[in-house]
């Protein structure tokens, strides 16, 4: 028992830092759970496009509000070569993993009665894909109900610098005829305008899969959206250009664990 004993200066300083972090984390992460989500990767009603479709309740997601500022870089381990190229940490790595674990459970609940072909959209989706499959494999090992799963890969390109070009190029991937008659889970890093995924789904349709579901780690709120929503979503984020956890800016930042907001100087430094 210390009573009113005065803390040494260093110990007192450490206590103050910890207190700030404990208060700041729940206060500053301005998120809420979306109570309803759009159905099965269709085009939803959208003010900018006028497109319509049926609405249905599906997997909820974590919605990060427009005024969320993220976290100071000094609170996390950031590679030195990126220290001057980022504004803030937006979604910490641990939170990404926790959310991915829950998505794995939701996917197994909905698709767990079928052999799944997991199709990774490269390059940005590879980290999310690997972690998601690890959690699904863990569920398979520790449950009375398990499913076989095989993997395939496809590579698309639609970005130059921080803008989607609107032109979708398939620049790599295996023979997709193996998807015919299969239950396919497409795993993507981020849905921005939705044009890339819409184009990919039209391509996959040519191979006549039995079922296609889409899981995306991020969905961006943007007026450029055509209204596309995937079946499983980790986080809905504001219209900011984010990097890290395999999301890149002209191939840089894929080696960053956290999802961060890139700085203007970073954009200029790595501009194509």
From TrEMBL:
Subunit field text: Homotetramer.
Keywords: Cytoplasm, Glycosyltransferase, Magnesium, Metal-binding, Nucleotide-binding, Purine salvage, Transferase
Catalytic activity: IMP + diphosphate = hypoxanthine + 5-phospho-alpha-D-ribose 1-diphosphate; GMP + diphosphate = guanine + 5-phospho-alpha-D-ribose 1-diphosphate
Name under which the protein is recorded: Hypoxanthine phosphoribosyltransferase
Organism of origin: Dissostichus mawsoni
Keyword DNA-binding tagged: no
Pathway linked to the protein: Purine metabolism; IMP biosynthesis via salvage pathway; IMP from hypoxanthine: step 1/1
EC id: 2.4.2.8
High-level lineage: Eukaryota, Metazoa, Chordata, Craniata, Vertebrata
Similarity comment: Belongs to the purine/pyrimidine phosphoribosyltransferase family.
GO molecular function terms listed in the Swiss-Prot or TrEMBL record: hypoxanthine phosphoribosyltransferase activity; magnesium ion binding; nucleotide binding
GO cellular component: cytosol
Pfam families noted in UniProt: Pribosyltran
């Amino acid at each position: 028992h210390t009573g009113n004993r005065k803390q040494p200066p260093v110990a007192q300083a450490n206590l103050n830092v910890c207190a700030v972090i404990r208060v700041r984390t729940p206060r500053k992460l301005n998120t809420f759970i979306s109570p309803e989500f759009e159905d099965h990767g269709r085009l939803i009603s959208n003010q900018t496009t006028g497109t319509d479709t049926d609405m249905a309740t599906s997997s909820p997601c974590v919605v990060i509000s427009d005024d969320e500022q993220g976290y100071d870089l000094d609170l996390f381990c950031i590679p030195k070569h990126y220290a001057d190229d980022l504004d803030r940490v937006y979604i910490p790595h641990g939170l990404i993993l926790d959310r991915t674990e829950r998505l794995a459970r939701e996917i197994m609940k909905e698709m767990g009665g079928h052999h799944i072909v997991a199709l990774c959209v490269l390059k940005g989706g590879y980290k999310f894909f690997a972690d998601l499959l690890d959690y699904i494999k863990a569920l398979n090992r520790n449950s009375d109900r398990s499913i076989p799963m095989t993997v395939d890969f496809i590579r698309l390109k639609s970005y130059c610098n921080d803008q989607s070009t609107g032109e979708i190029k398939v620049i790599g991937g295996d023979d997709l005829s193996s998807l015919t008659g299969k239950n396919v889970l497409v795993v993507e890093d981020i849905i921005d305008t939705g044009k890339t995924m819409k184009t990919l789904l039209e391509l996959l349709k040519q191979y006549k899969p039995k079922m296609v579901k889409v899981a995306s780690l991020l969905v961006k709120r943007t007026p450029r959206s055509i209204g596309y929503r995937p079946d499983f979503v980790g986080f809905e984020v504001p219209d900011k250009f984010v990097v890290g956890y395999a999301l890149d800016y002209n191939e840089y930042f894929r080696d960053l664990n956290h999802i961060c907001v890139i700085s203007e100087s970073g954009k200029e430094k790595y501009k194509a």
